[in-house]
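Shape matters. As here.
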Amino acid sequence: MAADDKKRKKKTEIHPTDPMAEAGRKIFARQIRRMKSHEAGSRTGEDIEAVHQMRVAIRRMRSLFRLIGAHYRRKTVTEYERGLRDIARALGAIRDLDVLILDLQDFQTALPPDSQGAIAQVVAMLDDRRSACRVRLNRLFDSKRYARFVRRFQRLSKGSGRGARTLKRAETPHQVRHVLPLLLHERLARVKAYDTVLPAAEDRTLHALRVEYKQLRYALEFFQPILGRSAGRFLGQVKAMQEILGRINDIAVFTAYVNSLEDLSPEQAVVLQHYISARDAELVGLREQFNEAWTRFNKRTTQRLFSDSMLVLR
């Protein structure tokens, strides 16, 4: 590792005795670098992973504000949440089309030649929409508002104490080791509370559960370096649940988008109905996988991994 990289790593290491606002500043610094590193690729679209990775970095920062926003001044949280939301929306419009196009192309390979042509025409239409979304994204990137937002956010992430809420009393819980266990338990509780509506939940409810799993995952990943070894094993269970729920949500988004398409030829309409039927059949299997995974996740042995991971915070 280069000397500069070692120096940067040392500066961004989180310690249990850090004030939570300071730990957040270090996490924001890493995520801002990741966001900026994928900006060029998001502009061109040559690699669709760039949009995905930039969007993930922004999602993580928004999630972090939800997790520890109480440790920053309200004005600070409002300003940066608004800026991140605007970027996320522009990227999300492209990402939804990226994933749908890939899924249609995968479905296309198993079709006879005449049906493949109809899917190819739909993909071309969606690609035109994606290009229009990218124009809007680049317009945002080129704006003075975006440049000012990034500049101010970088200053916040580099300045110790910037934007932090002033403590009224010295004994107020504010260090990571004091606050983090409660925050993580709250994130887990928001997931486990869904046992009151499962397994007969609708797709909308499963989407909400997916969001809660994502918030739990990000919170654990932010602080994994200072948690016990069992945190990694528990994270594996969280990721497995998120992947199943993510695919269920993707199919719901795909179906809604395809059903909204207008001015389709008869051939295109027929082949897209076959596509929707195939995805509906996939959903049946995914729901079975989810129910089995949910049972495993709630076993005592799995939940103990979560509890054990915080024993090192003293």
Summary: Residues 195 and 295 are 10 Å apart (CA to CA). The first helix runs from residue 3 to 12. The chain has twelve helices and no strands.
